[in-house]
Structures are given as structure tokens and as C-alpha cells.
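The following block was generated as part of the benchmark described in Methods. Ligand: fe (ii) ion.
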Amino acid sequence: MRRIHSWLLAATFFAGMGLEAQSQTFVRMPFLQKGSYNKATVCWRISAAAALTVKFGTDSTNLANTSAASASNVDACMTLDSTKLQPTTKYFYEVYNGATKLTGSVRQTFVTAPLVGAKKKSTFWILGDPGSSGTPQTNVKNAFLRINQGAPLDGVIMNGDVAYESGTDAEFTTNLFTKYPDVFATNFIWSAIGNHEAVASTTGASYLAAFNFPTAGEIGGVASGSELYYSFNYGNIHFIMLDSQVSSRTKTGAQYLWLQQDLQATQQDWIVAIWHHPPYSFSGHNSDTEGQMMDMRTNFVPLLEQYGVDIVYTGHSHDYERSYLIDSAYGNSTDNNSKKARVVLDNKSGNPTTTGPYRKASMKGPHQGAVYLVSGSSAKLDAGTLHPMMYVQYSVYGSSVLTIEDTVATSKFIDSSGTVRDQFQIVKTRGTVTSAGRPALKQDAQKFSQMGRRFLFPANNTAPFRIYSLSGDLISQETPKGMWEPSSKRLPTGAYYFRYGAKFGKISIP
Ligand SMILES: [Fe+2]
């Protein structure tokens, strides 16, 4: 009797252990968060609470390092030991329960970021309004992966509406994590919140629970104290993720004040900002009438441009809209249209294969122009028309790809059949222009020329450029280098004379 009792106890004990280990499967497959040159966080959701570890290493046949054990929860994240991570290095990882690899865990990889400031070529996949679980979402993903041909990505960035319709916990699982398990397990993912993540909970509770974004400036940038808005560095790029839905959009709000500090602090070559509600759109949503869109245009766009933002990705409208190189377009569409000659700094395509890239006169500095995109058709589609600030508008499913290498940024829109429907490039001038392989810039640097109200100066210019009123009063004197144009704030509408050495001419400010 006693013997039988012991046997039963032992059988129950071992069966229980076995059951527990076997029954844990991934509800949300491992996904990568908060990647930097020496940081990586692996997150997951499993079917029953357990403390798990992450084994990782550079040798695919021997995962030499093991993380500490996670809390015993169904949702957990483990930040890997930064002393074991080197920049720009490929690591393999798997998730374990004790000595047993968790059911469903396969050997995955990630590549750490380059050192901050490094000019490595980096590519980011930009998904807009992707969380709907429909066939178009799958088609857009497959088209991109087919075009990308397995080339390494440096990150996946989502601009909101990642869990339709209401941002419930179940919708995050079904419409987002279940749709991109392969992509999320092998790339660091970043997101801005959309309005649909703030329906079931106006504070975005399931969004905040699902992700693990930097709040303490741990991936670069100034600490925001919020996962709803934050920044991070990647190579020579500073990414800024803003919240156009839940947080205050006023100029006295915490988000604005944080952004001001963050922009003042960054020394990065490129500033790319991402948020949900577009400042310019004539599609599913109209930027002349919708509050969040107007707030972002009138409050946040001027601040970003003051500190030299280069590219802005948004969604919300389910189409593709891409602006010219523009600056200071803070009014509604009618107002901006009336000032088009002043706010559109380059009215050509920016396409490097046709009319040539947009040019910025220096790596940093205010009001040199930015390109604004609505890229919100990664799962849903709206009809639209061309907003006066936009070079192009397409109502087609697709996603965007941003590649930045040193002084050159290229953004492409790839539709759901894998066709590149639009591309633009921004080329910046670094110091004295000597970039080998960019003869156009080198040539530009050697001569002075005027194109309307824009001027090109030698990159090593030391001669003053003076602007006079028509009655001959000196209005301004500067010593510009590279591409330059008089600030619209300094010169009210009207005609002026300029003098530069022996050159003398007229400028008209519309
Ligand atoms: Fe939206």
C-alpha cells in the first residue's frame, strides 16, 4: 500500500513536470526590441507562465551565452547581456525552459547596430497601418520579402494602426504578431501608436503591454519617460517616434517639451520622424479638417524643421502620398498652395534616376527642407487626390523602404505586386565637398550660380553675399556655403538686389 502510494506520487510529479514543459507553446513568437550596437531584447508570449532564458551566441552550432531567467509570466522580455554583444555582429538565439528548448523555438538571428555615428548602409522596412489580418496585408509583406531577396534589414518601423479595429489584446495577437512572426523574430521592430490602438483603451493599454520601447534614452536620444514617444539612434540616423493620438499635442505638453530637448541634443547626421496622423493628406483623412493632423502640422512640424528633420513617415490615410522637398508649410492646403513657390524648395521628383535627387546644403541645420510621406496602405486602401504639397499620390497597397548610406537617403514605395512605384533621394553636403564618386557635387562646389531664389556657393566660400532693398538699403549679409536660399522670414514678399563679388542680380520672393 505504502509502495503504491509512493509510485503514484512520483508518477503524478513527473507527469506534471512533463505536461508543463510540453504544454508551453508560443502565442506570440519571439520578437526583437530595443536593438542598439550593444543591446538586444527578446520578447514573447507563451501559453502558460514560466521563467524562460535566451541562449545566444555568434556560433550557430554553439549558443555560448545564456540570459538570466525571465519572470514567470506568459508575457516576458529578456535584455541580453550587453558585455556579450559587439556592434554590427550577427547573433543566433533560441528560447529555453531550463535545459529544454521551448516547443516552437527555432534558431533565430539578429544583427546588432553599428556604432552611433557610423556611416554604414542601413535599410529599414516601413509598414503603414498594417494590422488588419487580410489578404492585402499578406500580399504587401510577400511582395517586399520577394523584392528584398533576403537582404539584411536594419529594422522594421510601423507608423500606427497595427491592431485593427480596437487595439484589443486579441487583435494584437491575430492581426500583428501572427502575421509577421518571421520578420519580427529576425529584425528589431519599432512602432508609433495609431488611433485604432486607442479604441478599446483610450490610453493604449494593449499597445503598451505588447511592446517594449526605450523610455530612458537607453538606445540613444533624450529619455522620454514614455513608450508612446521616444527616440533612438542607429548608425548616423536619429529616429524620432511621436504619438499623435494619446499624448498631448500642445506646445506646452510633455511630448513637445521632450522633443525640443531631444532635437537640441542630437548630433546625428539624419533625423527621421515617424508618427501616425499625416500633416498633409488628401485621402482617407483630410489634413485641413482633422484635429490630430492639424495639431501635428502646426505644432510639431515647425519644431522638427527648426532642427533640420529630413524625412517624415506617417499613415492613417490608406494610400501613398509623397511630398516635394518642402519647408515652412504650416497652413492648410489653400494657404500652402498660395505660398507654393516659397514652401516648395524643389518642385521636381527627387528621383535619382530621372530629374535627380533633392539636395541639402549641409548635414545639419534648420529649414533646408524635408520630405513628408503618407505610407499607410500596407493592409487597407483609400481613394485619394493629390495634395498641393505632394509630388505623387497612389491609391495602391504597398510599403516603403528607407536606405541611408552616409550622405545619401533613398526611399522607395513597393506595391503589392513588387513594383517600385515611386522613389526619391536626398543628398546632403558634408563639410567641404570632396565625396569621391559624386562628381555632380564636386562640380557644384566650384562655382556660383543662381536658380531663381536659390543660390549655389563654393563649398569653401569666404566672400560675403549681400542683399539690398530696391532702394539700396543693405538688408542682410552672410557667407553661405553650398546650396542656400534667403529665409522667407528675413525677406518679406517682394523684389531685392543681391551682390556677390562681381556678380549682381535680382531676387524675387513670392
Ligand atoms: Fe489611423
